[in-house]
Amino acid sequence: MSAPRKSANPATLQPDGQEPSPAEVNAAAASFAALTGKLGYLNATDLGNVRLAYRFADQAHLGQLRNSGEPYITHPIAVASQCAEWKLDAQALMAALLHDAIEDCGITKTDLIERFGAPVAELVDGLTKLEKLQFNTREENQAESFRKMLLAMARDVRVILIKLADRTHNMRTLSDAPRAKWKRISSETLDVYAPIAYRLGLNQTYRELQDLSFKYLRPWRYSILSKAVAKARSRRRDLIQKVQTDLEAAYAHHSLGVRIAGREKTLYSIYKKMDEKNLSFAQVTDIYGFRIIVRNLIDCYTALGVLHQLYKPVPGKFKDHIAISKINGYQSLHTTLVGPSGVNVEFQVRTEAMHLVAETGIASHWLYKEESPNAVGQHDRMGSQWLQSLLEIQDETRDAAEFWDHVKVDLFPDAVYVFTPKSQIMAMPRGATVVDFAYAIHSNVGDHTQAAKVNNEQVPLRTEVKNGDVVEIITSPESSPNPAWLGFVRTARARSKIRQYLKTLELTESEHLGEKMLRQALRSEGIENMPDQTGLHAAVWDKLLRFSGNRTRPELMTDIGLGKRIASIVAKRMMALLADAGEKPDALLLTRERFVAGENVSQSSVSIDGSENTSVQFGKCCRPVPGDPIVGYLGRGEGLTIHTSDCQVANKLQYKDTERFIDVEWSDEPVRSFETGIVVTVLNGKGVLAQVASALAVAEADITQIDMTDASPHGVMDLRFVISVRDLGQLEAVFKNLRRTASVLRVQRSKDAS
After folding, report:
1. In the chain, what percentage of residues exceed pLDDT 70?
2. 136 and 88 assigned to the same domain
3. Where are the alpha helices (DSSP H) in 562-702?
4. Which residues touch 337 (CB under 8 Å, ≥6 apart)?
5. Span 426-449, mean pLDDT?
6. Predicted pLDDT of residue 731
7. Which residues contact residue 713 at a Cβ distance below 8 angstroms, ignoring those fewer than 6 apart?
8. What range defines the domain where residue 611 resides?
9. What is the pLDDT averaged over residues 678-695?
10. Does some domain include residue 484?
11. Annotated active-site positions, please?
């Protein structure tokens, strides 16, 4: 163990004028004095609590060193220092100092609760990495870590602010880490942390993380661009000075109090623009710009008017992000003007409050709330809505990779702005559809969407919304989410809600099917009615559920419906349990079920009428319709699949898996039409397809799919149709109509044995 660290003030030149030694520099950086200069906004009690957290962290990390050789405590101090710049409260600063204590020092969450209270411990716990958990792939590991971070953020946004401060300091000192880690850490920063910083409006941190990532991912390009920007800065010094002088004179003439600041495009944004638009460095004209900071909202537009009188605006280069702020709360007026010597110069005009939000985003909640509680209200509200939507998605999605797929869409927003019929502005990701819009309003609106109007004209539900659209959603209590919506919705919220609804629907239908199948199996064992789960039969059900491994009766029924349990085996077990309880099967029912065959209606069959939706599938290999002799195959976890009795696929399955086939029959009154395949062999000629389609239309059969083979040398070709018919009788009528058609040589059912 290293010797105790001595407390010292930040090192300065020694009395004899010598530079401080590395040890003295380290001691200064590791002392609390390195932080105290930024804590003037805290009261004495809070300052004392932060000091206690520092001492605890200092002791916990004693003897630990960073890759640079500095004492490890310098890292928590740097993280806390960044948080202090955002004016975070004492609890957040304490958590920043302690953020590696659980992970690296063997300190428990209970220890932190006892010493510093539950809020601080919760913040630290939210920051703790998932090193102790094992994952199958690196992608899953990243998704899980990212998920925990987002969840912690949704509970308390201070967690993500501390995490971003932590990552920023790690990136600033990445040169001390092994070179082999540079690419992984920089890629992760660019792909995950920088977008989160942007999404929360932390633009200063966002730009720094991008530039630092670029520096370590593309060091050669970074160096070349850095030198080019330095040269351009030197060449354009006179131009920048001229613009600055002109601005000061113009605003003084109009007695408008402003603060003028220069703005330089980051190296990464220059590189990205050159790469995406295939430009040379000389063709990037907006490297330098100016920010005009004014006192109030009206002054923004007044200052803009003065600018447009001073220099001519470039057409199409004005954006009003004040009237319609960006999705992360950013507000400013942007305009590009033709400056001296014909050089285009970009200007941003904003108030001090807008500037604070633009640079520090959600952190401005702490920075500015004392001076102007309403100044950042809109931004805070927008950030909170996004955080809440993440929490909802996590509640509905337990798989880490699926959650990552949901959320990463929202991490890179390229927003469009649309209006509700009541003129409320809503920000949507580019490419979002009217269904996404419906779910953005409320999940109940999305679930019951029937139609939509855009700018008062009815449009398909897959229509993408565009800037300025007025979108109206028409709902109906009978409408419900369609699985096809998953093919075009863009937002994570809509996709998650649709999947949740379909999953719940599937489970409900599978439960009903399972109950129907178990009743059928129990009749085969001589039990007329399924026993209730109350009274004398409660013990029987308890034992049956232990046997099956299910927690509840609905869960058992669902598993039977999904094919995870065999109904006949469950029925035999229940019969044995009932026998143990002194009950006997009904001999007459047992005899009838086992030996009465060939009757029109079998009491032991599952009846199929087409209303079963996702719990019952119809084999694509044979496409049965009412009237066909059918069998039912209970796939493992796939529900019930209906095949025709002569289907070759079903015959192969029956040979290998006999116990998974059950008796099924058509209902007397099916509730919908069913798809089946037919092959029409024709003599090729002009208008043949139209003749065949007309014959199908006369028989009232709907065509859902057409495939054509190439004509043979003799001019004969096969037309393969998938058509919808009510039953076998209508299909026979279709065949009669087709055979009367002059060009038709042969008609038959299509059976795919693959």
Report:
1. 80
2. yes
3. 567-580, 587-595, 648-656, 688-698
4. 307, 308, 310, 311, 312, 313, 314, 344, 345, 347
5. 89
6. 94
7. none
8. 503-666
9. 89
10. yes
11. 103-104
